[in-house]
């Protein structure tokens, strides 16, 4: 019997698990995919929003500003790459200026600090790559960038280091409540027949949180997937700008952003189209054309030809216009409809959900042996020659480079397979280590990593997948 | 990394752990050949640094025949061809560090590398030969719409699975791009029982060798669909199919799909053979500028880059059509590196002041192209002796004529050239020229004696 079962191990589920793992509680995370953070948490803009965008008085506004303030510390504790590079919203002409002034006012009401409007000269000195006719901008120095999947791995891993369990490929299909009052508990049954019991359930199932709420008998909202396509450019384009650059929002929406990433690439996107299919992660030719056209308008010199990959994320958009975070029935808690600014808000949402659970009557006593921090995935890369050689003397696999584009060593790859949450497929290693994420996209190291994983995990090569389920890398042995 | 600090190690404070006269980065056909030539020219302090466990580079996985026709006048497989050169490396006792990755090369000729055995270490050289080879363009670079399932591989990655590990990545295959590795894999997958449904090539001609189209496609009845590309990838977990379409050249927009020509092909595997890119990360990091046409360093006739003492050869310099040519080119670099070391040693013996013992400055004649000739190697010439110039063309040309002219510099700093103004150095007629085949012409010593220091030799097609 678990005290709390968290359905959905994305950044929200992971952060909640981490927040709860401070206490003497038995916690499990139920994840439908073969790895954590495979949904919206791994394909988004990777931005810590300052908080000027959300409507004052909403949960979005509150948790955005709170989360933005917490994020730097959370990232430091968890060893996650974070950089306070500042955000700017660029305006072209008088109409945009009016909108920017409204945003400035809204931001101040939301409690965002240090906001101001920069005029043309200052703006072009800040970002020399902007189109000549960009004439003013809202500047938010508290805007930052973060690695979203690393944050998810780190939050889940830290919760696991503190005793939380993770069940992968656990696709919840049925939720039943037994008993009443203090003895009441839920049984969650997966598609493959596995069952777990828990006194409390947190619904952080992203795109599927409406279905989970319905299983629990409180389906009061609907989630619509909103497609966001992105292009990731090579590191040779990574210094095109230093701030995250937004376009002034119009009736047509927020538009495409241009942002450096914490790894030194340049990210362009997202498009924004509501769709029906929660499984449709395809990138469209129209979407890519739109991104390229808008980026050319804002920063004509960005070389969109240096693209190394394009991808699509689906935002879980609710039908209330706000995050849905509540306790609709005994022992059942929603952390749903977490679209943008969900990544930014995640630490604040986690803190709030923990409060909701405590308020509902669960006894929460702090652990004596709680581990607050976690070693970063990239710790080795930050060492100098002498420090590296000390590590290599003890663990020689840190001297052996496997991924030649990103210089990732065998030691780092083995660490990704060993450290919580363990990578069990090829994309899992890629997202944790950056091996296969460079210019060759795994052309050279891909086969080596497949073999290393098979040997280390003691499984046949044929059983290895790209990302779980039927995504096998090889079909059969040769003749 | 809280402050976005770069991931690169700081190698400013270098302690030198080893010294070799010549350090060669890469133990493929080019790197090994450079080492062998340097040895044969008298060098005895040579180090090859290779990132994999064994010498041979990409040839280890090229188990098909077709190698060695130029160098040995017999047909060998890739591993056999590599073994011939590796045998020389062993016979000469040339030092090889295996499973060792070079992290940095600097302009002071210090090479920093890492291995499990030695950790991170720095080698001081008197000459460095870059021979890192090339890599395949991946899917991302094409920005193909659709999903991102398993089953999409570069042809070389699939070749590694099949030939090195003995696993077949799929059974129903579409190949995008008709580069040589794609063509070779079309045959290889067919021999393993897979069905190769089509090879799509976005251009109206193939970039592969004519013999490979004959032996790898036509002999097996595999259709080559010219002016076709993959416009969408389908499948959630594993690839389920691709949509292909014909393309046409629209001025200003490039080669775009033609509406109404879309075809869905069910398949579980998409192999990409859409171009090779020299692997020049170390070169760029060292501050050496690349030629945008070759994506390799700009070099002189000795394959020396703009940085004295750093040479580049083989596929890291420009993508060759045959491994034989890559190996032969590397011998030029190996010989030049050995010569440099001899000159430095002589200067040192004669007591030259430190830092002033670089070989004396030479003349400089630039080589340019007209666009129809896509690139030339070398990109500049610093001595008036016979120079073999490699070039490739940018399109298919029937009955073209190559014209090489020189535009002389009025101020001949060197003062020894006989020519002036613009004059034609040579003309050569061909039956046909295509991008897939590398060409070469020799600029004779007598021709170069007509070219002034600071002049430009232009390669054009008509």
Briefly characterize the structure:
Chain A has about 475 residues and is an alpha+beta fold.
Keywords, please?
heterodimer; A: 479 residues; alpha+beta; Arc Repressor Mutant, subunit A; 3 domains; 8-stranded mixed β-sheet; 5-stranded antiparallel β-sheet; 12 helices; B: 462 residues; FAD/NAD(P)-binding domain; 5-stranded parallel β-sheet; 8 helices; disordered N terminus
Please, could you describe this protein's structure?
The complex is a heterodimer of chains A (479) and B (462). Chain A is α+β, with helices and mostly antiparallel strands and 479 residues long. Chain A folds into three domains: 1-83 and 147-223 and 318-376, FAD/NAD(P)-binding domain (3-Layer(bba) Sandwich); 87-141 and 225-316, D-Amino Acid Oxidase, subunit A, domain 2 (D-Amino Acid Oxidase, Chain A, domain 2); 380-463, Orthogonal Bundle (Arc Repressor Mutant, subunit A), CATH 1.10.10. Chain A contains twelve helices and 23 strands. Chain A has helices at 11-20, 59-78, 94-110, 120-126, 148-161, 209-215, 285-298, 342-359, 385-394, 410-418, 426-433, 445-457, and strands at residues 2-7, 27-30, 47-48, 82-83, 87-91, 116-119, 136-140, 144-146, 165-167, 172-178, 185-190, 195-203, 224-233, 244-247, 257-260, 266-269, 273-274, 307-317, 324-329, 332-336, 401-403, 408-409, 476-477. In chain A, strand 15 (257-260) and strand 16 form a beta hairpin. In chain A, helix 1 crosses helix 8. In chain A, 56% of the residues are buried. The mean pLDDT of chain A is 95. Chain B folds into three domains: 18-135 and 277-349, FAD/NAD(P)-binding domain (3-Layer(bba) Sandwich), CATH 3.50.50.60; 138-274, FAD/NAD(P)-binding domain (3-Layer(bba) Sandwich), CATH 3.50.50.60; 365-461, no CATH class. In chain B, the strands form nine sheets. Chain B has a five-stranded parallel beta sheet, with helices on one face. In chain B, strands 12-21-14-15-16 form a five-stranded parallel beta sheet. Chain B is built from eight helices and 33 strands. The termini of chain B are far apart. Chain B is globular. By secondary structure, chain B is α/β, with parallel strands linked by helices. In chain B, helix 1 packs parallel to helix 2, helix 1 crosses helix 7 and helix 3 crosses helix 4. The chains are: A alpha+beta (479), B alpha/beta (462).
């Amino acid at each position: 019997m678990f005290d709390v079962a968290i359905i959905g191990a994305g950044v929200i589920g992971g952060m909640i698990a981490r927040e709860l793992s401070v206490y003497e509680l038995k916690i499990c995370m139920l994840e439908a995919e073969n790895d954590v953070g495979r949904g919206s948490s791994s394909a988004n803009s990777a931005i810590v929003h300052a908080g000027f965008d959300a409507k004052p008085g909403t949960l979005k506004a509150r948790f955005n500003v709170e989360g933005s303030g917490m994020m730097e510390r959370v990232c430091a504790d968890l060893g996650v790459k974070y950089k306070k590079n500042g955000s700017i919203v660029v305006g072209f002409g008088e109409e945009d200026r009016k909108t920017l002034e409204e945003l400035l006012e809204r931001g101040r009401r939301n409690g965002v600090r240090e906001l101001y409007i920069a005029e043309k000269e200052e703006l072009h000195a800040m970002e020399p790559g902007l189109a000549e006719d960009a004439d003013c901008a809202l500047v938010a120095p508290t805007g930052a960038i973060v690695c979203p999947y690393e944050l998810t791995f780190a939050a889940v891993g830290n919760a696991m280091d503190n005793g939380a369990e993770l069940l992968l490929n656990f696709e919840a299909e049925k939720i039943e409540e037994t008993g009443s009052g203090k003895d009441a508990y839920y049984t969650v049954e997966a598609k493959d027949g596995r069952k777990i019991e828990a006194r409390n359930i947190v619904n952080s199932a992203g795109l599927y949180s409406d279905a989970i709420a319905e299983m629990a008998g409180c389906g009061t909202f609907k989630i619509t997937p909103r497609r966001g396509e992105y292009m990731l450019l090579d590191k040779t384009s990574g210094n095109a700008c230093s701030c995250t650059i937004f376009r002034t929002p119009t009736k047509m929406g927020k538009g495409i952003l241009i942002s450096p990433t914490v790894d030194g690439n340049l990210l362009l996107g997202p498009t924004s189209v509501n769709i029906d299919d929660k499984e449709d992660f395809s990138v469209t030719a129209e979407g890519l054309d739109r991104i390229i056209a808008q980026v050319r308008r804002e920063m004509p010199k960005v070389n969109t030809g240096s693209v190394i990959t394009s991808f699509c994320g689906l935002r879980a958009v609710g039908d209330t216009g706000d995050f849905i975070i509540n306790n609709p029935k005994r022992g059942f808690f929603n952390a749903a409809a977490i679209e943008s600014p969900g990544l930014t808000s995640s630490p604040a949402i986690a803190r709030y959900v923990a409060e909701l659970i405590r308020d509902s009557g669960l006894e929460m006593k702090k652990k004596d042996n709680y581990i607050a921090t976690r070693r970063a995935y990239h710790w080795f890369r930050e060492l100098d020659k002498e420090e590296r050689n000390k590590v290599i003397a003890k663990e020689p696999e840190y001297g052996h480079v496997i991924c030649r584009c990103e210089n990732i060593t065998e030691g780092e790859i083995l660490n990704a397979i060993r450290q919580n949450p363990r990578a069990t497929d090829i994309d899992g290693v890629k997202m944790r280590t950056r091996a296969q994420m460079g210019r060759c996209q795994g052309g050279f190291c891909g086969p080596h990593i497949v073999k290393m994983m098979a040997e280390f995990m003691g499984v046949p090569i044929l059983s290895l997948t790209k990302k779980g389920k039927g995504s096998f890398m090889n079909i059969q042995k040769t003749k | 990394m809280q402050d976005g600090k770069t991931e690169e190690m700081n190698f400013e404070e270098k302690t030198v752990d080893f010294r070799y006269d010549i350090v060669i980065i890469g133990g493929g056909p080019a790197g090994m050949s450079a080492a062998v030539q340097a040895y044969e020219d008298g060098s005895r302090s040579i180090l090859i640094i290779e990132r994999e466990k064994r010498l041979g580079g990409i040839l280890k996985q090229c188990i098909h025949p077709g190698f060695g026709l130029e160098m040995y006048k017999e047909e060998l497989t890739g591993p056999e061809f590599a073994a011939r050169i590796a045998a020389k490396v062993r016979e000469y006792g040339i030092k090889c560090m295996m499973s060792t990755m070079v992290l940095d090369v600097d302009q002071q000729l210090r090479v920093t590398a890492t291995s499990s055995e030695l950790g991170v270490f720095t080698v001081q050289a008197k000459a460095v030969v870059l021979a890192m080879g090339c890599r395949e363009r991946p899917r991302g670079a094409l920005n193909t719409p659709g999903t991102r399932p398993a089953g999409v591989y570069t042809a070389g990655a699939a070749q590694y699975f099949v030939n090195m590990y003995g696993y077949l990545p799929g059974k129903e295959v579409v190949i995008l791009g008709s580069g040589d590795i794609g063509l070779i894999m079309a045959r290889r997958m067919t021999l393993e029982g897979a069905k190769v449904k089509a090879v799509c090539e976005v251009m109206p001609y193939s970039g592969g060798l004519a013999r490979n189209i004959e032996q790898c496609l036509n002999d097996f009845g595999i259709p080559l669909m010219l002016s076709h590309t993959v416009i969408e990838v389908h499948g959630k977990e594993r690839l389920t199919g691709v949509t292909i379409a014909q393309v046409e050249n629209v001025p200003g927009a490039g080669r775009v799909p033609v509406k109404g020509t879309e075809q869905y092909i069910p398949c579980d595997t998409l192999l990409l053979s859409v171009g090779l890119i020299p692997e020049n990360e170390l070169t760029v990091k060292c501050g050496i500028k690349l030629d945008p046409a070759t994506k390799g360093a700009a070099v002189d006739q000795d394959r020396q880059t703009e940085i004295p003492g750093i040479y580049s050869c083989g596929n890291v310099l420009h993508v060759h059509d045959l491994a034989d040519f890559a190996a032969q080119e590397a011998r030029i670099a190996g010989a030049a590196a050995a010569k440099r070391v001899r000159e430095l040693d002589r200067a040192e013996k004669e007591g030259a002041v430190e830092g002033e013992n670089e070989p004396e400055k030479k003349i400089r004649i630039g080589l340019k192209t007209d666009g129809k000739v896509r690139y030339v190697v070398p990109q500049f010439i610093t001595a008036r002796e016979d120079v073999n110039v490699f070039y490739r063309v940018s399109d298919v040309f029937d009955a073209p004529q190559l014209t090489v002219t020189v535009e002389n510099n009025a101020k001949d700093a060197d003062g020894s050239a006989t020519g002036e103004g613009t004059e034609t150095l040579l003309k050569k007629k061909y039956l046909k020229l295509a991008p897939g085949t590398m060409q070469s012409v020799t600029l004779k010593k007598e021709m170069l004696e007509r070219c002034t220091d600071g002049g430009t030799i232009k390669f054009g097609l008509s």
